[in-house]
Each structure stands twice: as structure tokens, then as C-alpha cells.
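User: For documentation purposes, I need each entry recorded in a consistent format: the amino acid sequence on its own, followed directly by the corresponding C-alpha cells. There are two entries in this batch. Please keep commentary to a minimum and don't merge the entries.

Assistant: Recorded as requested. Entry 1:
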Amino acid sequence: MRPAFLAAIALVPALAACQTAPDGAYPSLAIRDVERAQGQLEPVPGDPIDVPPVEVPLDGPLDQRLAALVEQGRNAHARFTAAAPRAARLASAASGSGVGSDAWASAQVALADLDSIRSEAAIALADLDLLFIAASVEANGTPAIADARRTLLSLVQEEDRTLADLRARVR
């Protein structure tokens, strides 16, 4: 009993130190003057913040550019389609395995490969988006660009569905 009593007596000053204000008022959490930002921030020329505008010239053979971008997207999609069965097999094999297992790791690598191939189609789609926006701003006719964009968008959406299905299997 004596050690417990001594411990309680030693604890009293420590608990008394917890009360910082005699009237129970606590310090304000409002921003103090010293914490306020002052002055103006100017970007340094050549700093990464000073980004030049992206120019998308619409002159030149637009049909050839569109055909090249669609071809780039279709080639990436063909590679995606060729790699998807292997990834599906690995994802199915990893279905019941734990995170970090060999089957799980193999499935993750296969999914990463598919993601990489999908990004190539998405880059072509992004280039088409830039063309579409630039043509829209200049009030040029955009039906050919919109058609090419729809073609690539459908391919990328198909790839997204495949990836979502495979990821659901691995979880």
C-alpha cells in the first residue's frame, strides 16, 4: 500500500501542471500576425512555374496527322489485346493468393504491362484532344477530329474495362 500511496503523491504535481490557465481558458487557435504571409511572390523567369503556352498548329495535312494518331492508338490496342490473355491467366491464378505472394506479384507485373500499353493509346487520344480543342477555339470544322477521337476513346474505354475486370480478380 505504501508504494501506491507514494506513487499517487508523486502524480499530484504532474497532474496539477496539466492545467495551464487558472480560469480554465485555453489559448486561442486563431492565426497570429506572425503566421500570416506577407509580401508578393513573383515567379522567377525560367522557373518551372513559368510554363510557355502549348501551341497546336492546325495548318498542314490534318488528315495525315489524324490517320497517324488513330494508327498509333490501334497499334497500342492490338498489343494490349495480345497481352491481355496472359494477364488474365495470371490474374486468375492470383485470385485466391495473398498480397505479396509469387502469383500476386506476377499478376501485378502483367497488369502494369497492360497499363503501360494502355497509356500509349491514351497519349494518342490526348493528342487528338489537343487538336480538337485547338480547332474548336479557332472555330474550324472538327468532325474528322471528333470521329478519330471517338474511335480512340472506344478503344481506351475497352482497355479500361479489361483492366478493371483483371484488377477485381486479383483482389
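Entry 2:
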Amino acid sequence: MTELAGVTQARVIRSEWIKFWSLRSTTVTLATAVALLVGIGLLAAGMLGSGDIGGPGPGPGNLGPVAASLAGLTFAQLAFGTLGVLFMASEYGTGMIRSSLTAVPRRLPVLWGKIAVFGGVVLVVGLAAAAIAFTGGQAVIGGGGASWSGTGVARAVIGSAVILAGSGVLGLALGALLRSTPAAISTLFGAMFLLSGVAQLLLPAAWRDDVVRFLPANAGEAFTAVTPDSDALGPWVGLGVFVAYVAAVVIAGAWRLRRSDA
């Protein structure tokens, strides 16, 4: 099938931008994710400042000041990941994907357009929310707080936005691969929030830690930690592993979009 005249990647991105903001779930989910990241962060920072969850240092069993202010990251990941699933999989549920692929017969520009729009929005919104959570959290903690100039602090805050965007794109790619909202959300939740716990329970102790630290949630956490645990990956290795997971699912989703009927 010959691609329709005038179809360019830029125009596909513009079309996906319009579709993204026309979803009823978009504004609500974005606001929910921001509220979770900022609200839980301020709450944890308040508890840390009052001494309810240990001192300001990152010792065992304690939250450091940066980790406390970003304590809502996991919940925001789930919200953004769910929105990513809806942005892709809902088109299969409503049948709109057929219209999208009729307008763009080459198919893959639709996926690239969705990733560009969604990843860009989540990165910007996540960065703003993480910066607010960190700045507000340190104000609540007071004298025991951290500063932007501290070692690893900027990486942790900016890295939180990167991990949020990656989690959202992962959800979108799972929507393209599985084409079912419940299946994609369940897989996302399992991979990001259950897999590490299951591995800790089931794997032999001799090589448990070596495997667990390479799982997606642990790899992302290594990048956002100011001082990674001794048995965790290094920050940039952790980012590379996390991006590799996202890229693998994107490639799988692109393959199915290209090879299978809508």
C-alpha cells in the first residue's frame, strides 16, 4: 500500500498531540501523578524533618532527604505507565487504530509519533513535579535538608523525570505489543513492582542479588539514588539497563504493529 500524499512524521506527531489531549484520562492522570509525587514527597519530608522516620542521613532503615522528597516516585510511575497504556491500547479497544493506520499505511510513524508526544509530555511534567517535590521537601526538612549542588542530587531529581518518562513509554509499548488495556497494565505492574519481590523469594541465595539488581525497577532506582547501595548497579549502568528494557519492549511492539493486522 502506498503511503498517502502529504503524510510526514511531523504531521503524524501533530495528530498524536491532538489525540493525546482529547483523551478524557489525560489531564486527570497527569494531575494525579503530579499530586502523588509532590504530595507523598512532602509528607515523607515532613515525617523525616520531625524525626519520625530516622535522621537525615541515608543509613540503613532511614530515608535520606532527597529520597524522602521523591518518595512518591513509584506511585507516579504507575500513573504515568497506566496513561501510556491507555494512549496506545485504547485505540485497539475503540477501533480507532484502523483509521490511524489507514491514514498512515507505513504504521511505524504512528508509534514513533505517540512515543515522541507522550515521552516529551511526561518528561516535562515529571521534571517540574520532581523539582517541586525536591525543593518543597527540603524546605520542610529545614537544616538537615540537601541542596541542588550536593553530589548526586541533580542527577536524582532529573533522573526521576527520566525514569517517569521511560515508565510511561514502557506502558505505551506494552499497549502496542499486547493490544489489551488490562493485560498491558497487569504486565507493567508486575514487571515494575512485583518482579523484584518475587525474585527475592524464589531465586537461590547464591545468585539472587546478581539477578535482582538487573531487574527494571532496581536498575531505575540505582539511577535515581543519590548514594546507590553497595550491591546495586552504578547510576549510569542502571540507566543503561532500564533503557534497554524499554527499548526491547518498544522494538517488540513495533514488530507486532508492523506484522499483525489491527
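Summary note for entry 2:
Residues 170 and 255 are 15 Å apart (CA to CA).
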